[in-house]
Write a structure and sequence with these properties.
The protein is mainly alpha-helical. The chain is built from nine helices and three strands, in the order H-H-E-E-H-H-E-H-H-H-H-H. The radius of gyration is 19 Å and the shape is flat. The chain has a three-stranded antiparallel sheet with strand order 1-2-3. It has two domains: about 120 residues; about 150 residues, no CATH class.
């Protein structure tokens, strides 16, 4: 089935799953229903079909600004759904699914902004793969941090209805945030080290901003993890540093790609 059909279908399934989860939130239902899982899996399968048709082909990849956004959201959603087996992260999908719907449609109809890459070396594939996985996990961490901030604000102002009733306890929310941060920082470390090893010049003129911002994000998140376990830093500090580190990563990756591909038109 062509991507031009799969993309709108994936978007509709994502939006249907979002509407269902919002209904569950209004009904204060914490259990995940089979219908929600079914809609989510169907959306992911259609999304995977779009990624395969427009981005990934045997021996080649098209990683332009629009295309890679769809790939990253696919990985984010897959990680989040798999994590539901162990952790209650389903409320994050209310944020992620509508963005995924937009990303998959844009990726299918937007023009190419970067040349197709063929015969990528194993080291470069390791760098690209670990970078995408790190970005996906840290996106989940940022979304979790935003929910934690909202929950903490409501509890401090003695609001016991609404969001507080459908979220897990604050301690569990905080624990889930730091679990995501640990995984994300480990993957980001692999991405940075593989970049230094396998890229010709990671501080080349067109990469220097991306490299510096990425290293800044890694340092900030590493300091946060150290501060949490050594100094007892908790929710408010964790939220601020997580969102700041994620903002640096967004600027490093998407900011750099936007300028190079859409403004300077260099793939």
């Amino acid at each position: 089935m062509p991507a031009t059909i799969l993309a709108p279908l994936a978007a509709l399934l994502y939006l249907a799953a979002t509407a269902l989860q919002l209904l569950h939130i209004f009904q204060q239902r914490k259990q995940i229903t089979r219908l929600f899982i079914g809609l989510s899996v169907a959306a992911l399968l259609c999304h995977l079909g779009v990624v395969w048709a427009t981005i990934l082909q045997p021996g080649e990849a098209e990683l332009g600004f629009y295309k890679v956004s769809a790939l990253i959201f696919l990985v984010i959603n897959l990680i989040c759904l798999v994590s539901l087996v162990r952790r209650p992260l389903q409320n994050l999908l209310v944020i992620l699914f509508p963005l995924s719907a937009l990303a998959v449609v844009v990726a299918s109809y937007a023009p190419e902004t970067a040349p197709i890459r063929t015969d990528l070396p194993t080291g470069i594939l390791l760098h690209i793969g670990s970078s995408i996985l790190a970005y996906a996990v840290l996106t989940l961490a940022a979304a979790q941090a935003a929910l934690l901030a909202a929950q903490d604000h409501q509890l401090k102002h003695r609001h016991t209805r609404g969001l507080v009733q459908i979220l897990p306890p604050l301690q569990l929310m905080e624990a889930m945030l730091f679990e995501l941060l640990w995984v994300g920082v480990i993957l980001l470390t692999v991405a940075i080290l593989s970049g230094f090893v396998f890229l010709d010049d990671i501080f080349a003129q067109h990469l220097v901003h991306k490299t510096v911002l990425t290293l800044g994000a890694w340092l900030l998140l590493a300091v946060l993890l150290w501060g949490h376990y050594q100094l007892g830093w908790r929710s408010k500090t964790a939220v601020r540093l997580t969102l700041t580190g994620f903002a640096l990563l967004v600027l490093a990756y998407f900011g750099t790609k936007l300028v190079l591909e859409l403004v300077l038109q260099r793939g």
